[in-house]
Amino acid sequence: MFLCSHFILTQPVTFLVKHQQRCQEMEFAELIKTPRVDGVVLRRPFLPTVEGTLCLTGHHLILSSRQDNTEELWLLHANIDAIEKRFVGSLGTIIVKCKDLRVIQLDIPGMEECLNIASSIEVLSTLDSVSLMYPFFYRPMFQVIEDGWKSFLPEDAFKDLESMTEEWRLSDVNKDYSVCSSYPPLVAVPKDVDDDTLRKAAAFRHGGRFPVLSYYHKKNGMVMMRSGQPLTGTNGRRCKEDEKLINATLRAGKRGYIIDTRTVSVAQQAKARGGGFESEANYPQWRRIHKAIERSSILQESLIKLVEACNDQSHSMDRWLSKLEASNWQTHVKEILTTACLAAQCIDREGASVLVHGTEGTDSTLQVTSLAQIILDPACRTIQGFQALVEREWLQAGHPFQQRCSQSAYSNSKPRCEAPVFLLFLDCVWQILRQFPCSFQFSQHFLVLLFEHTYASQFGTFMGNSASERSKLNLSQKTVSLWSWVNRPQEVERLSNPLYEANCLVIWPSVAPQSLLLWEGVFLRWKRSSRCLDEAYDEMVHIIQYNNKELQNKVNNLRRQLAQLETEEPLLQTP
Amino acid sequence: MDHVEQVRLLERFSNKSTSGTLHLTATHLIFVESNNTATTILHHHIASVEKLSLTTSGCPLVIQCRNFRVVHFVVQRERDCHDIYSSLLRLLRPVSYDELYAFSYNPKQNEQQREEGWQLIDLGAEFERMGVPCDRWQLTDVNRDYKICETYPRDLYVPITASKPIIVGSSKFRSKGRFPVLTYFYQEKKAAVCRCSQPLSGFSARCLEDESMLQAISKANHNSRFVYVMDTRPKLNAMANRAAGKGYENEDNYSNIRFQFVGIENIHVMRTSLQKLLEVVGSRFLSVNDYLLGLESCGWLRHVKAVVDAAIFLTKAVTVEGASVLVHCSDGWDRTAQVCSLGALLMDPYYRTIKGFMVLIEKDWISFGHKFADRCDQLDGDPKEVSPVFTQFLECVWQLTEQFPQAFEFSEWLLLQIHEHVHSCQYGNFLANNQRRREELQLGDRTHSLWAFLLREQQNYLNPAYCPTYADTHPVLEPSTLPCHFKFWRNMYHQFDRSMHPRQSVLKNVLTLKESNCQLEDTIKDLETVNFSTVFLIEEEEEVGEEVTECCSDTERTVEGSSGTERKESYSDLQGTYGAKAEPAVVSLEFGVARMTC
């Protein structure tokens, strides 16, 4: 179980004071009406109640009993999704609901203090100004061995591709983000297609997201591409350059599949708003398949309902099952996994190339392309490879993390662009991990960690909505990358799956409802102490490591000793 | 007719099929595929055979098994299909015990081994382990000849103060003569768990001896001034029983009792519920919503939770309050057995070991007369008597093993294997409805014991995460009763639907590693001795080395079952490492054929 963010636990209490001083010099000072209150009682899941001093800083809510034996609470304001106030006499209570779905309670003596604290938290947790966000203030307390901002450069990824095929090139047509604001400066496109064609195709695609390479299947040379919807509109506009671009990815005589993540009717409706889909007539070499992954606003509602169901204290089985059903969460998981399997199947089984898109091409499209790669490509199942996948298919590909993750399941304000698109992806990965527990180098801890950091983090990795926004914010200079933290040896070890054995095969998950489980590690995490599950897990890790390290080493050492004795012995034995 | 060729076996959840030859033996139905893999089904496992209407590809035959396997054959010629169908109908309805497999099953054991197998579990010793007889509880010989109650065992434990007339009087006032007796003694608080059947109270009848009996139970425990009486039925059912001269204890007549209904439904509700569940999860192209709605409407998990809730109530009363509890339902052999045994499992770590779990089943289920023959439909009988009460108990245990992964010495494979054999009629343990009948059938002389077989194979059923010291810190388990912690038991109800299971098994992997750890430890010991005594036994070292590599590569764990190879195969599929064969597995039917829309 992790509490708050990781570095937080390692910070000494004295740091608190310095931190406060620094904050007071800044704009936060006026937002914090009461910086500290004594005698506050903290109640949180699975930990004993603590009484201590509550401090508010620009970025943290801190509660410390100033005793060595109790754990301090360091909560990022950014992690706070909603608060509730209650009063009994002069005793105020603030219920803090976090984006990682934890709920904690603070009992604060004094009505005024309580009101002040509550209003400060409300303001501090909803600051709009990006430049005030914590990653800009955070200084790592660990030594950065490898700068995560430089770990996954598109140029490096392309080098791998170049070693496999010469049919693709890296285009810098988007180097100033003018062709597509949500694309990175460098994208992989068919070699025979020039930048001018790309520009024209971009004008025909939603958000300028012209078809680009997402994945190259080494086994048979088939590819997966992704894009935004074509802007055919009601009168069936076409674009020769777009047709040329995607046809250039087909081998002679081969047909490809276009996987539209929307249902036919949704895609039809999109025409009225200038969008649409590729018609058979204009794209005769492609067969179109429609799937039904929901739009992001529906996903957010689903998350809210699911979390509500999980927090229901009722002991009625019927109520639980009907609420779980009504949330539709597992349906989304199944739909996304099914579509990803379909894409993977087209590529691996049918030997056909695939183009995936929905409407914008920044949500369901990325869920499908990234999951298909997990299924097809063993490299994506390693710790490094998974980071590269997230970097490539989510961050570089322009998933608007900041918009999608600014609120979580408890927020009272009306969702605008919030949606658990990435969380659903992680849930799907977890489902596959459950079914192939030995084929992933990482454990579910890694997935939970990513979930936490997309919603609130000291690292800059998930800030901004696109590569262009991140470059404007100069994140790589001003903030620390999550990958810098993750790729330190001790963290890699913590996130590793002890059962991992490289499996070079394609892994087909079962998507039967009976095979899909509720992700307890996220949704029931605060309902019941996972201590016995964790201990059982540790025991297994122990068995495995004891085997791999200690015993094997010991046997090898003894063998070696024996071999040495063998060579010495003849001298003794020969008379 | 002994075999039919060119039969196709359709996969349950996809469009795939394999063809092969169908053989029918005296005890088994065997389907041999062209590549020689065989699916073997014991006749006793077959719950129903259905001949569907003729199709262009042949005549379909659907066989449903009690271990939840469903096989769908297509036989080319209708005549053949009809022959198989009618042979099966004849074979799967044995009318006398002598026809059961247990009497012909011969596992190549000598007489001594067989006898030893039956002596493995000794209930007298078990009561001694609990600390009974003691100064408050004694062994009574009233039922030595099954005179007082023919569905109880011979040896019964009652309060010292309960005299023979009290016992006899009380038994006359209870359904089927099942008077209150001790089933578990919680030594720490000297609190007793007793069981019985409903009183014949009707609307007003009372029985002084029965009242004295409860008084005696209460008096035997100095920790508490009262004894809980748990009626495991819903109140409405219990009240309805009064009209038939049965019913429940009137608190006014019994001094010092606290009466409580806990509301577990009856065998008919449970039967229908599981049937519905199986219908839901058996449908192809099941959507998540239909699945969850089906889980809800069939009520199965609600019933499972009700049983666990009742066991928790019992456990709390005994361990926290130190009160004695009397548990009953109508006849005291279904819900009562569930609640008493599950409660004991929560209270006493011994029952969470492999041997202890067998003792528990032997005590609360077999000896106290759970009607296995009727409930599991061993002989052609009344279909209304059939009910998955024991299956439900096993599921409750499974739910607990999921919540407390370190507390149980056994993994779910033990539960599945026991379930398999409760229906296989291959061993004598579960045959017939009560001990008296078992003695008449001379099962101890004529059949083999399942427990001996399971204990011999016990390394297959070990839970690698089991921590024996867990019992010291958690002697009493306190499970969560939140509905979200109850799960659908896929490995039970889809045991044979391979495409639904994880393709790699953590359990199996860790077990193998653990075994290899032991072997490596031995190797180290050997090597150390060799090293100390210097070189002179070089060959031996090499031998040891070979041994180790062999053990490490021995990744195929097989669990022998009633039905030979197929069993092995299905287990190794579920447990096996899939390193090499992950690929061709089925994804889902939906894109077996990618649906094109344009």
What does this structure look like?
Chain A: InterPro entries: Myotubularin, Myotubularin-like_Pase_dom, PH-GRAM_MTMR6-9. The complex is a heterodimer of chains A (575) and B (598). With 575 residues, chain A is α+β, with helices and mostly antiparallel strands. Helix content of chain A is 42%, strand content 15%. Chain A is built from 21 helices and 14 strands. In chain A, helix 5 (195-203) crosses helix 6 (240-247) and helix 10 crosses helix 11 (364-376). By secondary structure, chain B is α+β, with helices and mostly antiparallel strands. Chain B has 22 helices and 14 strands. The longest helix of chain B has 27 residues, at 506-532. Chain B has helices at 78-91, 111-119, 123-130, 164-172, 208-219, 235-242, 267-282, 288-298, 300-320, 335-347, 354-367, 372-375, 389-403, 412-424, 435-440, 443-446, 450-456, 470-473, 490-493, 506-532, 538-553, 564-575, and strands spanning 3-10, 17-24, 28-33, 38-42, 46-51, 59-65, 70-75, 137-140, 156-159, 181-186, 191-196, 227-231, 257-261, 324-328. The model of chain B is unreliable at 537-598 (pLDDT under 50). Chains A and B meet through strand 13, helix 9, helix 10 and helix 21 of A and helix 8, helix 9, helix 20 and helix 21 of B.
Question: What is the structure about, briefly put?
Answer:
Chain B: This is Myotubularin phosphatase domain-containing protein. Chain A is an alpha+beta fold and 575 residues long.
Cα-atom radius of gyration of chain B: 26 Å
Overall pLDDT metric of chain B: 88
* SS summary, helix count of chain B: 22
Q: Quickly count the helices of chain A.
A: 21
The protein's oligomeric status is heterodimer
Strand content of chain B: 5-15%
Biggest sheet character of chain B = 7 strands, antiparallel
What number is the mean pLDDT of chain A?
90
Determine the N-to-C terminus distance of chain B: 52 Å
As a percent range, the share of strand residues of chain A is 5-15%
* Regions with little confidence, pLDDT below 50 for 5+ residues of chain A: 1-17, 571-575
Content-based structural category of chain A: alpha+beta
Number of strands of chain B: 14
CA-based shape of chain A? globular
Keywords (chain A): Acetylation, Cell membrane, Cell projection, Coiled coil, Cytoplasm, Endoplasmic reticulum, Membrane
GO molecular function (chain A): protein phosphatase binding
Protein name (chain A): Myotubularin-related protein 9
Pfam family, one (chain A): Myotub-related
